[in-house]
Amino acid sequence: MTEIASIDPRTGTPVEVVAEETGAQELDALCRAAGEAAAPFAAAGRQWRAGLLRRIAAELEADREAIVELADRETALGPTRLNGELTRTCYQFELFAQAVEEGSYTEAVIDHAGDTPMGPRPDLRRMLLPLGPVAVFGASNFPLAFSVPGGDTAAALAAGCPVVIKAHPAHPATSLRTFAALERAAAAEGAPKGVLALVHGVRAGADLVAHPAIRAVGFTGSLRGGRALFDIASSRPDPIPFYGELGSVNPLVVAPAAASARGEEIAQGITGSFTLGAGQFCTKPGLVFLPEDEAGTSVADAMAQAVGGLAPGVLLSEQVRGGYEEGTRRLAGSAAVRSLAEGTAPEGTGWGAAVRLLATSAADLTAETAEECFGPATLVVTYRDRDELAEALERVPGSLTATLIADDADAEFTAALEPVLRDRAGRIVYNGYPTGVAVAWGQHHGGPWPATTSALHTSVGITSIRRFLRPMTWQNAPQELLPDELRDTPEHPLPRRVDGTLRV
């Protein structure tokens, strides 16, 4: 059995062996246990699940110091960033607990029996129910908020689904530590055995998606890995939904008047955004569109000056660093792409990488040069006019975000460009920077392929629960057979639509 080692990215050396790859028999047993836990877990009810979610947040908070120290050793993201991420992680569980108690996510509907223009109507009652066991794949770049205790896990548990989590090899020790907090919470709340499980290894991940007990998958990772798992989920005898976040280039457009009025400020903001976390944010602006005029040139020059003085970033893993070096070589190898600036080169061992700023023109932008390059690099794209910009944006792949930096004098430009950006992304950011995804009811973290495999859904915010639910209608059912949410007088009241009228 292959050993799973915890590696320090600052040195590139193994620190300790923390686990072994999960074998086929163990994986089968864990998935079967999740399947057996599904019915009792769903039947435990919303109020009990809310208590479980809050207990998980409390257990993570109680172990904050050790979790952050371990995560920093495995990711080099720094204690400030990781403390903020853990706070976000705990907040996610608290917010989902509130949503589960409130209950509107169930979309409960009651249509009483009665006469209609089409004749008599039966009594119809509809709501969303848990799908069943969910496979969750931890992400490398957010070892807490998008990993073992991350948003997919929180959403699946909130929906009432058991979770089998595939630990990310870039932070296996952190995965074990945070999973222990989840297990303590489940034990304290009396959760059914099998409601939580953790597996390791590439083979285990593929087998997990193929296992018949698994009813849906939440994934954040590379296009190559995600597409392979997506194909497994789709080719099963019983295909299941695969909610994958696979990569995003996140175009950022600076309008002409804004570039002229506040170019230095914009240059600082863009540079800070694309280098944040060593460029390892899924919302990093990978394409920066600047006007091909004096103001746009000044913004690019200011960015180049800032980049030239930046120290190298430490990337999350050897694989991430390899992909970054390959991606920047691919860009630099294009005859239409030139280098504007490069930060300090890394020294010694470890997975350091220099910050890189490259440039091309909107006319020369191709599907290949518009691809995501994960890490601290961005491509400046200069445009001559609005029409050329719109044509170039059509060649940009689907993204999680699109950003527009504009002033009042750019109103006509903005109005014409907004529909173009809307077609390319799931969230439009105005006069801000895309690195940062608030956990809220109004958030949408998704987008057209290849940003995600389903632009209909989000992986952040309360509506992410919807991925792990399915609708069910009861017709003329007796009260005692109905879920509490659909009874005439529910024990735990919730917003419902009754005979077409929303009642809160």
From TrEMBL:
<feature type="compositionally biased region" description="Basic and acidic residues">
    <location>
        <begin position="484"/>
        <end position="504"/>
    </location>
</feature>
<protein>
    <submittedName>
        <fullName>NADP-dependent aldehyde dehydrogenase</fullName>
        <ecNumber>1.2.1.4</ecNumber>
    </submittedName>
</protein>
<feature type="region of interest" description="Disordered">
    <location>
        <begin position="480"/>
        <end position="504"/>
    </location>
</feature>
<dbReference type="InterPro" id="IPR016162">
    <property type="entry name" value="Ald_DH_N"/>
</dbReference>
<dbReference type="InterPro" id="IPR015590">
    <property type="entry name" value="Aldehyde_DH_dom"/>
</dbReference>
<dbReference type="InterPro" id="IPR044151">
    <property type="entry name" value="ALDH_KGSADH"/>
</dbReference>
<dbReference type="InterPro" id="IPR016161">
    <property type="entry name" value="Ald_DH/histidinol_DH"/>
</dbReference>
<dbReference type="InterPro" id="IPR050740">
    <property type="entry name" value="Aldehyde_DH_Superfamily"/>
</dbReference>
<keyword id="KW-0560">Oxidoreductase</keyword>
<dbReference type="InterPro" id="IPR016163">
    <property type="entry name" value="Ald_DH_C"/>
</dbReference>
<dbReference type="GO" id="GO:0033721">
    <property type="term" value="F:aldehyde dehydrogenase (NADP+) activity"/>
</dbReference>
<dbReference type="Pfam" id="PF00171">
    <property type="entry name" value="Aldedh"/>
</dbReference>
<feature type="domain" description="Aldehyde dehydrogenase">
    <location>
        <begin position="3"/>
        <end position="447"/>
    </location>
</feature>
